[in-house]
Amino acid sequence: MFFIWALLAMIMRFIFSSWLILAATPLVLADDVKDTRPGPVSKLTFALLDGRESTLSSVILKKAYERLGIDVEFSIMPGERALYSSNRGLLDGEVNRIEGIDENYRNLMRVPVEINRFEALAWSQFNIEINGWESLKPYPLLIKLGIKYAEQGTSGMNVRALPEYDRVFAALSNSPDTVAIASRLEGMYRIQKLGLSNIQALEPPLTHKALFHYLHVKHRPLLDRVTRVLNKMRDSGALQAIRERHLANLGR
Fold first, then answer.
1. Could you give the count of Cα atoms lying within 13 Å of 62 in the half-sphere of its Cβ?
2. Are residues 79 and 196 in the same domain?
3. Does residue 138 share a domain with residue 81?
4. Is residue 179 a contact partner of residue 140, using CB atoms and an 8 Å limit?
5. Is residue 242 one of the residues assigned to a domain?
6. Contacts of 97 (CB under 8 A, 6+ apart)
7. Residue 215's beta-bridge partner residues?
8. pLDDT digits (tens, 9 = 90+) for 137-185
9. Considering 44, 71, 74, 95, which has the largest number of Cβ atoms within 10 A of its Cβ?
10. CA distance 47 to 56
11. Domain range for residue 98?
């Protein structure tokens, strides 16, 4: 009998203690719970390389994100630092890069719509026969630091990388035995800007490359929306119209 009374006393003490804990705990209403899910994106900042193709691509992206009600800004920085910042999520992505960047920078997602393209050319003060990248092996080469297609194409060669295209073409103008690598659009622009008359493009192009927009993985919910907008702009001719206006302005 004593055992039963002791057991009942223990149960009553447990119930009373539980009631005290519940009474001391503040009541949390549904309206008091904060929603920690990310809200709608209203502004994004993308890494922008110093180059004519990137500038054109930034104009295209500005128009595309306007259709989504999202404001975009661009942070100009060197190629490697841009990729580091985008991959770490310090920026929201890359304006444009060649296909395959996401193989090494796993936090970047390629938007699967070509927004731009370019021809890579050799530039020099003298004529040489161009038959792919291998034909450049005998010569000292100049490239822009962080430009992946140029780094890949000239791997193992005598290469000097400079941080700006202006410096690449200025150095080329003073180096009669050297060859520089740049896109057709970039080379034309730098020659015009710097007033150089002793540099020529060497045909045919070394390669043709498509350029794609990249988003950081934190913006995965945006990927399909951006893809749809860019597809519509491509199919309607809006992308080509922007490109033609940009090229016309460059020639003025």
1. 10
2. no
3. no
4. yes
5. yes
6. 83, 148, 211, 212, 214
7. 93, 109
8. 999 999 999 899 999 999 999 999 999 999 999 999 999 999 999 999 9
9. 95
10. 14
11. 44-118+210-249
